[in-house]
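Table S2 (continued). Query chain:
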Amino acid sequence: MIEDKIEDVIIIGGGVCGCSLLYELSRYRIKTLLLEKENDVADGTSKANSAIVHSGYDPAPGTMMARYNVEGNALIERICADLDIMYKKIGSLVVGFDETDRKSIENLYVKGNKNCVPGLRIVEGKELFSMEPALNRDIKCALYAPTAGILSPWEFAIANAECAVKGGAKVEFNAEVTGIKKENGHFVVDTVKGEYRARFVVNAAGVNSDIVSGMADEKSFTIQPKRGEYYILDTTEAKLVGMVVFPCPSKLGKGVLVAPTVHGNIIVGPDSTDCDRGATESTVAGLEYVVKNALRCVPSVNMRSSIRNFSGVRADAGLEDFIVGESKRTPGFFNIAGIKSPGLTSSPAIARDVAGMLLDKGLDSTPNPGFVAKRKVTRFKYLSDDEKKEAIKKNPLYGTIVCRCETVTEGEIVDALNRPLPPRSLDAVKRRCTSGMGRCQGGFCGPRVMALIAKYTNIGSVDIPLDKEGMYIVTGKTKGKRAIL
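Corresponding output:
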């Protein structure tokens, strides 16, 4: 029967918002399908951002952004503990150099209190420099937000999606949406892989959310993508700062930050420039801007320790708030759009809210007996010596180091390849295990990771991409053998 082939909900887009909603809906007996145009979740904005859990002092009071930011901040710590996602609550500082900056910081303090952000304080003098000794001594004051944190953003999406799939939800990769129409009371979603049907559709397509919305509805908003460029510094710089250091925000955003990452690096960036969709190249001008502004706040940043540059593209709808809710023109079609910063922090709160909207529309609220509330991941390098010995005793593959820079074992990679959403590219393994994230950036471990992907999946060695489909590493023959580039 055709009814058996109709999903309750189709989610378009596998970023942090789409994956968070997939997980939230998996709490109930709801048939949910996530469609992702790439070959992995978290392969857009969700893998290329500042990885900050914002406290919530910046959004305008009374907006959805303000509410979702503070609620999301409170939810994330528990979610990361339950799903074993790398997370640290380290606090943040917004620093000011003069009286104009002081007024800006005081305004943020007032907004933060209206938004119910806990623990905000304005600090200065000896206290400030005892908190962060590397700060520029010309800084006069700072807003301290103790609830700010850092996490692994791609792992946040992956963990939510994995647990949802284990609980019965479905994910379809390489399924770019090409059209949406309503037929016999339900939606028909056309993709490059065929059509899918559902009672409700949720658009969480990031920088393409205006295009997807236009397929089902009148085009009520337009996304202007904005590129932000970053440096990642080697773990030798890990002690540079202990908190997230921001300048005073401007119309371009929160500014160039200097912050630790959960993996032990230092992240520096971003700038903010208008760009085309998918324009993730790095530029000389953008990187120079990042360096200049980072050094202003933290003069001892050692840019010679950079091991990688990258850029991410954010979805800016030109509004002071997110676009979240049901379409007024097309009942049953929901948007989660214009999700710029603090989108990562807000994602679990947005998911909970949209799930509630869908339940209010008549979806089954019966608890799912197969709901997966917990996840555990083995990270070999963080184990004690005794724990390492026990892990190797149970599985000898943990005794073989594949990535020397990050101390990633064969056991961890094989674990990832056997999880509910197995990685299908070199970078997809990296996002799950950190192999290739160290100083050599996969120069030594890359071929060994490729061999493991080929061994444990149905992907031949010559077909394994670096990341997205078409980004192949093995491209042709040289001296009678395949050439590895």
